[in-house]
Here is the input.
Amino acid sequence: DTEVTQTPKHLVMGMTNKKSLKCEQHMGHRAMYWYKQKAKKPPELMFVYSYEKLSINESVPSRFSPECPNSSLLNLHLHALQPEDSALYLCASSQSVTAPGYGYTFGSGTRLTVV
Amino acid sequence: RKEVEQDPGPFNVPEGATVAFNCTYSNSASQSFFWYRQDCRKEPKLLMSVYSSGNEDGRFTAQLNRASQYISLLIRDSKLSDSATYLCVVNSPQGGSEKLVFGKGTKLTVNP
Here is the structure.
């Protein structure tokens, strides 16, 4: 079982819907990440949170809004998405952003389909 | 030039074969290097970190050449269960933060 838990595992939403993806880790990691992965492509970084503060935003459109309520939780709020936003959304965590020497632990992802 | 470049693959090998994957990175400030494995429709999982002196974990050997900015992964005695996409991953310092950048991945199929 993965130590990073993502919910829901699958999500279908319309272009006018508002939904949220959730991610939780209890490893005491202080850095959390959102990645987006399209089919047959590598994961692409969206956001980095360090000690609950946003430290990197990879020029992600505002229809994606991240939130880190506490050190164990990371949310991704979705609004007015487009069909091309359909992808696997992966959450990851690491001990800290400045010491990624142990790599990231990924959740199993949320497979999002926008219709 | 992309930050992380890998052999495009795919690689199709018989069981028991030895297969090597190569990867280059462009950011000379990178300090952490990894190989991840991703099975179809699953999340990436850390296979091994790559250390300057090279390191081995069972049938897997990783090498790093900082001067050439080159990383490799060698798999000996391939098993059917090794079939997956192998992702070369490198850290990229960015201001006071860092991120991991993934190569495109190399798909390996081990055939009976």
